[in-house]
Amino acid sequence: MACKNILTDDEQSICHHCLSELPYTHFLIGTNNLMYQKLSPYINIEGAYSLVYFRKRGNIQEILHQLKYKNHQEIGELFGKIMAERINENKEYPQFDFIIPIPLHPKKYKKRGYNQLTFLCKTLADKLNCSCEENLLIKVKHNKSQTHKNMQERKENVQGIFQLKQPEKFSGKHFLLIDDVMTTGATLESAAKELLKINEAKLSIATLAMVE
């Protein structure tokens, strides 16, 4: 999916060389990393994590494009395994109860046919011994793309776009909220604030990539 070379029998979607060359953050999930520092002034979170730095015109941009727009869900499965291994490196971090993917609006889901985060989150849940919950957080407003907006416009664009469905069933749980890329964090902030309305909820956040 990156260099377009032929894979060997023991490689899945991305060759070992391209995987080794990705710009890994080397974060441990928790509070001592750049992602937590960017998000914590706005959201009451337990910790944060991102696997790699997003770089335009690099392999990670092509890989994420294949995952998001070309329905290559096997990429999500592969990165779910890698993320779980890295998250588990922080032995002192508490266990999660539920993995929550950022949802798509029903119109976008119908058009695309899938949520690019589903396989990633299900793999993470399996490896982290918790559950993937795709029906608690729903997207109720079909907002415009964030791509060409500045930080303030991004925040305004995502206000009130998420709602909870039967939150009373999830009191006191620790959630891990997942997205593919964090740019300004506006979408994550909006989703996180909704999840934190749940009684005694704890929240951590992880993404596949974050913009440097």
Description:
With 212 residues, this protein is of the alpha/beta class. The chain has a single domain (16-211), classed as Rossmann fold. 34% of the residues lie in helices and 18% in strands. It has 8 helices and 7 strands; from the N terminus they run ααβααβααββαββαβ. It has helices at 16-21, 34-39, 59-69, 73-87, 106-112, 118-127, 151-157, 186-195, and strands at residues 47-54, 98-101, 131-132, 137-139, 162-164, 174-182, 202-211. β6 (174-182), α8 (186-195) and β7 form a beta-alpha-beta unit. α3 (59-69) crosses α4 and α4 (73-87) packs parallel to α6. 35% of the residues are buried.
Determine the N-to-C terminus distance.
22 Å
Mean pLDDT: 94
- CATH 2nd-level architecture: 3-Layer(aba) Sandwich
Looking at the structure, what is the overall shape?
globular
- Counting DSSP H or I runs of 4 or more residues, the number of helices is 8
Largest sheet: 5 strands, parallel
Radius of gyration, CA atoms, in whole angstroms:
16 Å
Percent helix: 25-40%
Strand fraction: 15-25%
User: What structural class should be given to the helix and strand makeup?
Assistant: alpha/beta
The CATH first-level class comes to: Alpha Beta
Element order, helices and strands? Answer: HHEHHEHHEEHEEHE
* Total number of distinct structural domains: 1
Which regions are unreliable across 5 or more consecutive residues at pLDDT < 50? none
How many distinct beta strands? 7
The CATH topology assignment is Rossmann fold
